[in-house]
Task: structure prediction
Amino acid sequence: MDTPQKPGLPKNLKLVFRRIGEQLEAYYNGPYRSALARAERDEEDLFMLLVYAESLGIPNPVSLYTLELQPLMLERFHEWHRRMGMERSPLDELRCC
Result:
């Protein structure tokens, strides 16, 4: 038998609580979002430096392992060197701009 619904309660109470939870989570995480994005960018910059360190003239003990990552990171190389304040590519063999 169908149970009668109480007046004033939405049909899908679970959906309402989920949406309220999402809004509260966004409100709570909002102030930290920029700090997390900055930390992620810093980690990516450090990783990019490690990958291209040998090409920049910095001794890199793991260059054999990072050499195979260079073609994968080439797409993001232009953004990285612009973010680091270099107008042109610092590498002679990589001309991206």
About this structure: DSSP finds three helices and no strands in the chain.
